[in-house]
Design goal:
Layout (H helix, E strand, L loop, with lengths): L1 H24 L4 H16 L5 H32 L11 H22 L9 H27 L1
Helix pairs in contact: 1-3, 1-4, 2-3, 3-4, 3-5, 4-5
Length: 152
């Protein structure tokens, strides 16, 4: 029973987040869906902005979303690996962070591979790099926050 509780507490959130990412990757119209909301908003905020700039901003917005979703994944995976015990709750472990980042990289690769089978989607190694960078950024923010909290 204890192992199930540990799984539910630590690993289930990471796995649920992976399902969220997977389901977003399965949407063959994801670019179209986000553009239907994002681009009219930009035109409303900036009526004179050229369409080419709107499309560039929309593209940047989508890549920032990749960074964010994989930063969250890295934090959830780190939490599952780290599983703070009373004795190590305040200790940072670079091996845990490295393993979390390796899992994020592997998941990003499998996500892009999955997209290669979805009509209208393309698999890009540059997206794997963006996703992994998001994971690294999330872990660095966590490390920095923990380091700052120890000082206060």
């Amino acid at each position: 029973m204890l192992k199930l509780q540990i799984f539910l507490k630590y690993w289930l959130p990471a796995l649920v987040w992976m399902v969220v990412i997977f389901s977003a990757s399965a949407d063959s119209s994801s670019y179209q869906h986000s553009s239907e909301l994002f681009e009219p908003l930009l035109h409303w905020l900036f009526p004179k902005i050229p369409q080419t700039e709107v499309e560039e901003i929309h593209h940047l917005f989508r890549k920032c979303a990749h960074l964010t979703e994989y930063a969250i994944l890295a934090l959830l995976v780190w939490r599952a690996i780290h599983q703070p015990q009373k004795s190590q709750a305040q200790k940072w472990n670079w091996r845990h962070a490295g393993l979390a980042l390796a899992i994020v990289f592997f998941y990003a690769v499998t996500d892009e591979f999955h997209q290669s089978f979805v009509p209208g989607r393309t698999a890009l190694f540059s997206d794997v790099l963006i996703d992994t960078s998001g994971g690294a950024a999330g872990l660095l923010i966590l490390w920095s926050a923990r380091k700052t909290m120890r000082r206060t």
